[in-house]
Amino acid sequence: MFSKVLIANRGEIALRVIAACKEMGLKTVAVHSEADRDSLHVRYADDDVCIGPAASKQSYLSISSIIAAAEITGADAIHPGYGFLSENPHFAEIVSECGLTFIGPPPQAIRLMGDKARARETAKNAGVPIIPGSEGAVRTVEEAADVARSIGYPVILKAAAGGGGRGMRICWQESDLQSQYDTARNEAERAFGDGAVYLEKYLERPRHIEIQVFGDTHGRVVALGERECSIQRRHQKLIEESPSPALDEETRKLMCEAAIKLCQAVNYVNAGTIEFLYQDGAFYFMEMNTRIQVEHPVTEEVTGIDLVKEQIRVAAGEPLSVPHGEFRLRGHAMEFRVNAEDPVTFAPNPGKIRELHLPGGPGVRVDTHVYRDYMVPPHYDSLLAKLVIRGKDRSETLARARRALEQFVIEGVKTSIPLHRAILNNEKFIRGDISTRFMDHFSL
Amino acid sequence: MNFKEILELIDKVAESGISGVEIEQGGTKVRVEGKSSHPKVFAYAGEVKPEPRALPMAELPSAPPPETPQQTAARVAAEAGDAGLHIINAPIVGTFYRAANPEAPPFVNVGDRVSKGQVLCIIEAMKLMNEIECDVDGVIATVYPQNGQPVEYGEKLFAVKV
Fold first, then answer.
1. Fold of domain B84-161
2. Separation CA B12–CA B4 (nearest Å)
3. All structural domains of chain B with their residue ranges
């Protein structure tokens, strides 16, 4: 086991890793930028090192500064948290070259899964369903029509070079395809200087459902159930829950098996998440995240497994502590992300927290780095706290969440708390009738 | 009035050339005299209280104990003594070395005349020796870290009398 762990991160996740280390009797090193001098992770760690100015590029993203901090403090392992350098294969490599242990997956697995096209190919080869579509770009409208007939309408045309919605056209029937094909090509040409387009099955109301996976260095891989993360805006998750209200035992089992197959195909070690789109009983591989996720507490609450401690143990070469045999989720859990942002426009709102009251009581967990008089710096992401609620079933969880959000007070900065209160009173949300389009039709 | 504000007040008094100022605010009284070359600070014992801070947990292992008013006054006076000196801070985190290798003499000693671009020390980070250069002409007044000591980003390395 390690003796001293450096946490190459800030905010609530840095505190989360410090908590795990303390419980395991390991010493900790906090690194921080000049803007985070008064942060709690700096206070709670055994050692702290200022590694650069406020700008992430010269501090939390500066590989040489982080390694130097590990060297001068005598740390023997580095936990990257999420974001920043967590999915940078080059960083993972340098950490091991310097004789330290990277608490995360091997660099090859990070690299393979970070390349979207190769990840899709790997999934396909491992027998994991992917969204049906053309093999690469379609060259003519006739070829597009052939592919569309074989996978079924609706389909979506996407720019091969693109992203951000440009060059995208939804086609509900063949006549749409005939008329939209040239428009999509022209738009792609103008936006990206490359008119190549490909075609995919269009999912109208997909759910985002992901599987938590964990591999150890002894060849064992387990799937720890799902998290439904359909409530999101601009691809940023707002609420996550487990189990998903949409899955039956059979589908859950199929998704977990698919996730395990993919991990085995890339010799995956440590914590990871396989993201799927789900609609009408079918699921399709989207991407894999090769790190601990923001929403990991949801899984912790329904499995009773401390995922961060498990990460540290597995990185030290120990076998997974998850019992063998049938795996069952217990109760229901939901996470609400409390961000420093305007609940209507979602514009970030940094500033000083003048008043703070955190909810407590049965089934309530708050992971946060904020305190009264804390200055929320403008340089980093706006997450202030994660409110995690556990109940015996979904309806108890919802009632408990409403009660906890009523007790949750943050003054001085605008937060997403009012938005969460409103979502909790939405009929469709209460029924569990949600998709990734939910927030398109919801506002305060 | 917090510590930073007191420091700012000292700077302002020194700059303005006025003889002094006395401020009373919420039971805290601070007088800064600016007659001599270095301003003096009188903090009234028992009245300068550290700012109350609310933190979710009672025990903060790495938080330093609050300074006594005497310590505060001494530190303020010492830092005010840096006025007129140019401070060179560590541009990176790493291990501070005063010489190119253990046998070599230090790059600079207190009292040495230095010029812009001259190497003052080495900071080792990731087995790389980064030469830290002087950015002014002057005379070395202070060397802050010990040889072989770790330094953080922004930590004081040298004071140069310009």
1. OB fold (Dihydrolipoamide Acetyltransferase, E2P) (2.40.50)
2. 12
3. 3-59, 84-161
